[in-house]
Amino acid sequence: METRPFSLTFGSEGRHLRIETLTRLRWLAIFGQLATVLFVAHGLQFSAPVALCLAVIATSAVLNVLVEIFVPKNLRLEEQPATALLAFDVLQLSALLYLAGGIENPFAILLLAPVTIAAVSLRSSQILIIAALVVLSASFLTAFHWPLPWYRTETFELAPLYRLALWSALLVATTFICLYAARVAGEKRDLQLALSTAEIVLERQNHLSRLDGLAAAAAHELGTPLATIALVSRELSKAKLPAEFSEDIELLTQEAQRCRAILGQLSSLADERQPPLDHIRLRHLLENIAAPFRQYPVEIEISLQGEGDEPIVLNDAALTYGVGNFFENAVDFAKEKVLLSATWTSKDVTIDIRDDGPGFPNEILNQIGEPYLRARAARRLKSENSAGLGLGIFISKTLLERTGAAMRFSNLDSGGASVQMIWNRTRLENRTGAADRS
After folding, report:
1. What is the pTM of this model?
2. For residues 113 and 118, what is the distance between their CA atoms, to the nearest angstrom?
3. Closest listed residue to residue 436, CA positions, set 336, 302, 312
4. Which pLDDT tens digit goes with each residue over 290-303?
């Protein structure tokens, strides 16, 4: 029988925290609290309100038991239920500290644990709620609390100024954790999403490229049975058959010829565009990239110059999409001209894309290629998937770096932007395989 969530509205589409993660952490806290209270009371023989402390610990244990009974372990929480559970942990620990010395208790530092979990898992608004609750609890515990458990014949109390210093330290630590942990976790999530998007884009490009090869292969395989059908239909047309079959045989012959014409067009795809696993000369790669933009009102110039034989590269989606996306950006921002040049030596192969547009904003020049780049500059990094956030640039940069390219972004003295992609020639040609240069 399937159990249903109780009380709180747990979400089946939660973004981050699994309920099992919080449950296990709470069990760890419960056993730690229980061991500490018993050790202080019986091991050290300190005077402590053991019964009340155990009652507070029991509330946390009861919640954990109810969650494990009624809530699926693999459930991921929505923002509000996760915030509610973390808030409960803050209040439960605060109640325990209230009975055991307040801010003077060394274990008051554990108030930072729920803040840390919230900072790496929740949105900014929920993080602020947990942080504010921790600050309020620490402020209350600084002013109001029962005495710190100590030897029965002695009393222990810190000076008010020192208690204020402890409160200040806790406040600073809470602020630092919220800012730092939330920033790091946010960047990690953006990076993971951007990498996932890059994989999807590359897979789509590979799928489209494979269609040409598949079409050519299908045309080749279907050619033989179609030729047989055409031969049989011609023989039937020469035979003396009843008149009612003549029109059908003539129609069969026409349709066979039509099929042969269609298969011929499919076969020509292999000649018009190289199959994805074929190797092509560098000039052909650049021409394929520039071809879709020839109708744009921008002059496109392709330049090739180098030492020795022209490099032969793999005509794969990563290389084509990566260079093509940077070239598309150059065309979008160019005023009159875009230069797509390739140079090579015995050691390196370099592709340089230059335009005469406004160039990259100086404030983001060192950040280009980061996922979800946000800039208020006039030049927006546009691409099909970036929506102005730089994701398209990140995808292209990532794909090219996987082929061994080193990326350089700069502004030209004469105006405009330059994107250089530099490969080690030996590594690039080893990657593409030993292609025949004849």
Report:
1. 0.53
2. 9
3. 312
4. 988 888 889 999 99
